[in-house]
């Protein structure tokens, strides 16, 4: 007879099998228990045919990975603790000393910090290309170029590149492509089938996604995914993931599994409200330019329309405004401070509308030719009533009048 203390750990009771509910169970583990040494020796963790250690997944994370593959049109998925970790995992999986990575000049800022502050020290160099000029990308590809990052739309300036044109150049030059797909979220366009009527279909090699944004939808979870279609490429990423130990917490995975079914509805709602506000903002004299891919005057609008099937795919929930250069940075800051519903904070994709003033001159190698001069403010539209949000911006504009 074992003592009752031991029985608390090795209990004989097994709940009946067959429990089903809308939300899948949360299986948490570092240790996974094997029935025999033979099983321990033979179990394979790389192909998700079994379980070996929490770092390599549990039923909970396998479920999310498969659902994200369906969302984005990929075949394999690796989860990591943040969107930025997804970008880093891609870089560390496919680049080695002596290689070069190309990034669009409007790339998500921390990706620049990664290449400038970390990869440089590993002997991996980088260059920035003009996302709106495919010839500039072509000119910068050399025999050392091993990875090209793509992003649509740009994080802060929301210009929409000609993704098929950029991709064709990379394919011709046999360079791997990775898309930061956080904005499109698998809903606006299909990253692995960008031009589906071509054979083979034109698509990216890797899609990295900050699940922190729309898949979470709550502003309360950090997570990222790296999705591929090529098993060999996936294995490289999976091995690097294993060696770096980039595991995720299953309670966080569960939170994303819970939000995922409503994501398309939320995305549509963010999209509609954002278009309404961007159109209205375009009529305000303090804003010399409004950046949103659905606006005909916004850089790359035709590319967005073509890729997102006449706009039906959506355009996410952000727009930026360029305040007239006659306003100082201090006045721009006062405008942001005067907003009440829009909170000051980074990230996006949650229910609360957010605003961030950016100092664009420090973020780009050159001031883009298609942007008016001024100070830039980015709005990310939550799920509040659109009239309330418009009134909030209108009220804050009074500090400039
Ligand atoms: C937020 C974001 C990331 C990083 O996601 P985190 O989970 O915050 O690290 C990467 N790319 C884009 C475009 C993002 O907006």
Structure description:
With 401 residues, the chain is an alpha/beta fold. It has 2 domains: 37-261, Type I PLP-dependent aspartate aminotransferase-like (Major domain) (Aspartate Aminotransferase, domain 2, 3-Layer(aba) Sandwich), CATH 3.40.640; 262-400, Aspartate Aminotransferase, domain 1 (Alpha-Beta Complex). The chain has helices at 4-9, 37-42, 59-72, 83-94, 109-117, 134-140, 163-172, 231-244, 250-259, 263-281, 301-307, 329-338, 386-397; strands at residues 76-80, 100-104, 125-129, 145-151, 176-180, 206-210, 224-228, 287-291, 318-323, 343-344, 354-358, 375-380. α7 links the parallel β4 (145-151) and β5. The mean pLDDT is 96. Bound molecules: pyridoxal-5'-phosphate. Pyridoxal-5'-phosphate is lined by residues 82-84, 108, 155, 180, 182, 210, 212-213, 222, 224, 347. Pyridoxal-5'-phosphate (PLP) binds next to α4.
What's this entry about, in short?
By secondary structure, the protein is of the alpha/beta class. It has 13 helices and 12 strands.
Please supply descriptive tags for the structure shown above:
Aspartate Aminotransferase, domain 2; Aspartate Aminotransferase, domain 1; 401 residues; 7-stranded mixed β-sheet; 2 domains; 15% strand; binds pyridoxal-5'-phosphate; 13 helices; 5-stranded mixed β-sheet; 34% helix; alpha/beta
């Amino acid at each position: 007879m074992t003592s009752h203390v031991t029985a608390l750990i090795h209990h004989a009771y097994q709940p009946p099998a067959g429990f089903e509910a809308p939300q899948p169970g949360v299986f948490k583990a570092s240790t996974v228990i094997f029935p025999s040494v033979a099983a321990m020796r033979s179990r394979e963790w790389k192909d998700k045919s079994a379980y070996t250690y929490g770092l390599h997944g549990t039923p909970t994370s396998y479920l999310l990975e498969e659902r994200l593959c369906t969302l984005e049109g990929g075949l394999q998925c690796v989860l990591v603790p943040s969107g930025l970790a997804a970008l880093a995992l891609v870089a560390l999986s496919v680049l080695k000393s002596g290689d070069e990575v190309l990034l669009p000049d409007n790339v998500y800022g921390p990706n620049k910090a990664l290449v400038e502050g970390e990869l440089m020290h590993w002997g991996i160099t980088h260059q920035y290309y003009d996302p709106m000029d495919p010839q500039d990308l072509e000119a910068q590809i050399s025999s050392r170029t091993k990875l090209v990052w793509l992003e649509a739309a740009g994080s802060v300036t929301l210009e929409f590149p000609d993704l098929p044109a950029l991709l064709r150049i990379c394919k011709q030059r046999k360079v791997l492509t990775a898309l930061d797909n956080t904005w499109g979220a698998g809903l606006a366009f299909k990253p692995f089938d960008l031009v589906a009527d071509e054979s083979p279909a034109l698509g990216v090699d890797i899609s990295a996604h900050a699940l922190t944004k729309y898949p979470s939808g709550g502003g309360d979870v950090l997570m990222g995914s790296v999705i591929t279609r090529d098993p060999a490429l996936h294995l490289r990423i999976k091995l690097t993931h294993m060696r770096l130990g980039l595991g995720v917490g299953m309670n966080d995975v569960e939170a994303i599994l819970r939000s995922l079914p409503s994501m398309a509805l939320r995305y549509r709602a963010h999209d509609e409200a954002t278009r309404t506000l961007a159109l209205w903002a375009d009529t305000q004299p303090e804003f010399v330019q409004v950046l949103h891919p659905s606006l005909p005057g916004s850089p790359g609008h035709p590319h967005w329309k073509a890729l997102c099937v006449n706009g039906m795919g959506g355009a996410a929930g952000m727009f930026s405004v360029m305040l007239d250069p006659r306003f100082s940075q201090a006045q721009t800051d006062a405008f942001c401070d005067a907003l009440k519903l829009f909170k000051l904070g980074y990230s996006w994709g949650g229910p609360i509308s957010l605003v961030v003033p950016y100092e664009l001159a420090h973020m780009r190698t050159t001031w883009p030719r298609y942007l008016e001069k001024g100070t830039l403010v980015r709005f990310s539209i939550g799920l509040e009533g659109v009239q309330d949000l418009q009134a909030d911006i209108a009220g804050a504009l009074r500090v400039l009048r």
